[in-house]
Amino acid sequence: MSARYLTTTLPYVNADPHIGHALEFVQADVLARVWREAKNEVFFNTGTDEHGQKIYDAAKKSGQELQAYIDHYAAEVQKLKESLNLSTDAFIRTTSPTHIKAAQEMWRRCVAEGDIYLKEYEGLYCVGCESFKTEKELTDGKCPDHNIEPQVLREKNYFFKFKKYEEPLLNYLQKSGTIVPEWRRQEAINFVKGGLEDFSISREKKRLSWGIQVPGDDSQMMYVWFDALTNYISTLGWPSSAKATEGNPDLFKKFWQEGVTLQVAGKDQVRFQSLMWQAMLMSAGIKNTDQIFYHGFITSGGQKMSKSIGNVINPLELVEKYGTDAVRYVLLRHASPDEDFDLTRETIHEHYTANLANGLGNLVARVMKLAEDYLQNPIIITQDDEKISDEFFKKIEAFRFNEAMDFVFARISAADAYMNMNEPYKKIKVDAVVAKKDIEYLVRELYRIAIHLVSTMPRTSEIIKNAVQENKKPTNLFPRL
Prior knowledge:
The protein is an alpha/beta fold and about 475 residues long. The chain has 2 domains: about 290 residues, Rossmann fold; about 130 residues, Orthogonal Bundle (Isoleucyl-tRNA Synthetase, Domain 1), CATH 1.10.730. The protein contains 19 helices and 15 strands. Strands 3-2-1-11-12-7 form a 6-stranded parallel β-sheet, with helices on both faces. Strands 5-4-6-8 form a 4-stranded antiparallel β-sheet, covered by helices on one side. It has a 3-stranded mixed β-sheet with strand order 14-13-15, with no helix packed on it.
């Protein structure tokens, strides 16, 4: 048994959570559940990023008091835990006292290493990204991610010696598997080879008061990314060096220093997660992240989701209509794990109807109705029935969530074909012995399918297993809508 640490990025609390957040959370949750099934000890983290200019401006525009504003959106993100049935171990908020303490300690360690200095700077600042941009990062003079022209800002800021870490970062990135997929690793390597520039890690307090105070300088607030990235270890209790006891375990030592660490993030995060954060860890003398997996973006109808277009898909609304496991199913099977893909409300409904209502749900109802009517006792579950295929595990470990789901649903299709070919519902009247053997085979196959859904569709898995053990048809899993 080994210790595995897993974290998502933290949604920014200036809007409702969207389907992209749900994708990242569900992917991470499946990994956490699979690792636990393999008898690993897992720490699964998520939370909210709550500082910065965007949040301050959005709260002011809304007319709400700042704390009430962030509390509201933090609560909306927390709703995803229950709605998506996430097995998280922690929910870190970057406004928490423990996180603030950690961010300030990270700053002090980087200062002690000689990696932070003060200088006057003029640059192009994108409020949407909360970062300065170079001309080469702009498209037609605008930030490509937010389609806005950056502001020209001149002020005195603290800078981090990013350039100093070019060679250490290249050494870190040389290891295959550090970043998945591989082309994102090459993207990171090329970025470093193109030359790194020291980056600003503070803002003048007179311009931005909403953030974490820079230790030893009342006139400056920490850059939101420097603050937020530290959450990955502050959630483990870092920098506390208290001795581990039964009631106070040293989680940082167990899961970060001695465990295997994985971060899950969107493809726009490569610079921040695999370069800036890793350089900060190097400066602070902390082990680097073992692996980072980057997923793609979700478009809708071929366009980026936008409230003005009206194509935004709210995951909470999807769960309310289709149910938790149906949403998990769509995000895992009908989404590319690491490339951009398109989802619309119409395609989601089609996937639900064809593969869940008319597929798995219908199969379970038909088989368990036959079992309830014609089998005197539940089947005896064997050790083989409880085994999860190595092929399935390998696909999840390789972040091929869609292929893992295809593997399970191929078994569902095979069971359905067996039912249609052998017709035990007809045969029972002329050859009950053979028909009952067919029914027993199908019930056992349902149980094995359920075992393979434990990590991906856990509630559905539990219902099917209970139905088999009780030899009773369950309520329709996926009603036709």
